Amino acid sequence: MAKSPEDRHPVKAFGWAATDPSGDLSPFKFSRRETGDEDVRFKVLYCWICHTDLHSIKNDWGNSTYPLLPGHEIVGEVTEVGGKVTKVKVGDKVGVGGLVGTCHSCENCLNDLEIYCPKLILTYNSIHTDGTITYGGYSDHMVANQRYIVRFPDNLRLAAGAPLLCAGITVYSPLKYFGLAEAGKHVGVVGLGGLGHVAVKFAKAFGAKVIVISTSPSKMKEALEHLGADSFLASRDPQQMQAAMGTLDGIIDTVSAVHPLLPLLSLLKSNGKLIMVGAPEKPLELPIFPLLMGRKTVAGSMGGGMKETQEMIDFAAKHNITADIEVISMDYVNTAMERLDKADVRYRFVIDIGNTLAATKP
């Protein structure tokens, strides 16, 4: 007779989950697997709230399975390791990002691009190899194969470093891959939210000249004075956009709402690259003629593999790059989701799991 999930996953766990498309999160008891030979178990201390979490709990993309326990930017302290684990030890600070499983044998996996594996197992709302649903980081502890564990340097603050496991690698990888991580490059960043503000920080650390492009002129002071961008473009100002035509080597577009691409393409030099990292729910209109005239490229990027994620975290620690966050308690999470939906946060919420989750147990 087939074993129940509780038999296969005998370690009791506690977190907050959504049980239907209303998206309301509430206390949830579940279980995780025992620590395998190559597994790392850690106490969750902080977990970032991502826009993906918001979309997932409400089933906006039509692929949610309930109960759904979100969270894929998870950091904490190792409490147990399997007998074959060599990557970390008990007491180390570690993190888990968006994936907890891949096939290990496809071309992408063999080239350290696990994020593009066709058999990718997501950290939550996915099916693991044993047939059970994966649960994320809004919980008291986490267990994952050491392959998907990221080591956190001692000088990188855990709370502000947690968002880098998603936002950080989402912008770091395309900056590197598309040749924009070089001193002197002129790089535009569209949108100054959770992804955008981190993109500015990484691009500046690479030595690029960074231009923030936004529909909100009110964000100019923030972009220039707080984040250190070199200049600011109000995308609805025709004169500013006209003056900046043909000046950028590349653009990282972080916007997840429907928006016109033609004005952005006009900002690119010949051979320039517009890289999409946001995920609008509806298709965007792509004019072809501007691509032909300047041999320009429109591309997408979902993130990086585990090797590059570790490289990104180490780079962030070296250059003191962290996300700007608002730390919240576990019982504030539903209010935080409402605020996130209205973009009422600068720039992302991080749940203080370690100090506040236990108090919410029924």
**Poorly predicted ranges:** none
Biggest β-sheet strands, sense, barrel:
7 strands, mixed
User: How many distinct folded domains?
Assistant: 2
Calculate the terminal CA-CA distance, rounded to whole Å. 33 Å
The overall pLDDT average reads 96
The CATH class of the largest domain: Alpha Beta
**Helix coverage percent:** 25-40%
| Total beta strand runs | 17
CATH A-level architecture of the largest domain? Alpha-Beta Complex
Q: Please trace the helix and strand order, writing H or E for each element.
A: HEEEHEEEHEEEHHEHEHEHEHEHEHEHEH
CATH topology of the largest domain: Quinone Oxidoreductase, Chain A, domain 1
DSSP helical segment count: 13
User: What best-fitting shape do the alpha-carbon axes yield?
Assistant: globular
